[in-house]
Amino acid sequence: MTPDADPLADFLGHVAQHPELQEQLAGADFARVSAIAASAGFQVSRVALLRAQAQQILSLSDEELELLLDGHVDEVVALQEFDAYLGRM
Length: 89
Known about the structure:
Helix 5 runs antiparallel to helix 6. The two termini are 18 Å apart. The protein is an all-alpha fold and 89 residues long. The longest helix has 14 residues, at 46-59. It has helices at residues 7-16, 19-25, 30-39, 46-59, 62-69, 73-79, 82-88. Helices cover 71% and strands 0% of the residues.
C-alpha cells in the first residue's frame, strides 16, 4: 500500500471480489466491519467508516434522502450502485 492509499477504498475493492466477505458484512456495525477488515489485512477505523457514510449521505439527492427518511432503503440502494459509491469517495 502506498502512503496515499485509502485503506477503506482498498478494502471495498477487496470485498467486491470476495462474496464471502460481502455476506459477513451484511448488517454489520462499524466495529464489526473494522474487525472484518482487520482480519482481511486492512486497517479501517470506525471513524473512517463513519466519515465515508457521512460523505455518502451528503452526496445523496433530495429525492434519495426523502426515500431514506420514508424507509425505502432498497429503492435508494437500487439508485446507487456500489461502484457509484466508490466513485464519490
